[in-house]
Amino acid sequence: MQITDVRVRKINTEGKMKAIVSVTFDDCFVVHDIKIIEGENGPFIAMPSRKMPDGEFKDIAHPINIETRSMVSEAVFKAYEQKRTEDEE
Predict the structure, then answer these.
(1) What is the DSSP string of 50-69?
(2) Largest CB tally within 10 Å, which of 38, 52, 73, 85?
(3) pTM
């Protein structure tokens, strides 16, 4: 499985949520609404989730192993930094 496209759809300069991203896998499957969040220990990605009746959020789609999560995180942060650099110029 390869990441074939990463689109940074929205960048926020205020607040903890920094961007919303879509990631395409193998040119045939896309996951929308991956968020880049500024946490206490640095930025992290939050996968798309749904609020449950008890108030807890549950991921709708997510990597099932650390290698895939790392691959997605690296691609998302790389695209985010490129987009930020382009927007600043």
Answers:
(1) EE-TTS-EEESS--SSHHHH
(2) 73
(3) 0.86
Say whether pLDDT at 7 is over 90: yes
Place of tokens 């499985």: 1
Q: How many CB atoms lie within 10 A of CB 1?
A: 8
3.30.1120.40, 3.10.580.10, 2.30.40.10, 3.10.20.90: which CATH number matches 3-83? 3.30.1120.40
Residue of 32, 4, 9 lying closest to 19 (CA atoms): 9
**What confidence score (pLDDT) does residue 10 get?**
84
Position 14 pLDDT exceeds 90: no
Q: Which helix (H) or strand (E) holds 84?
A: helix 66-88
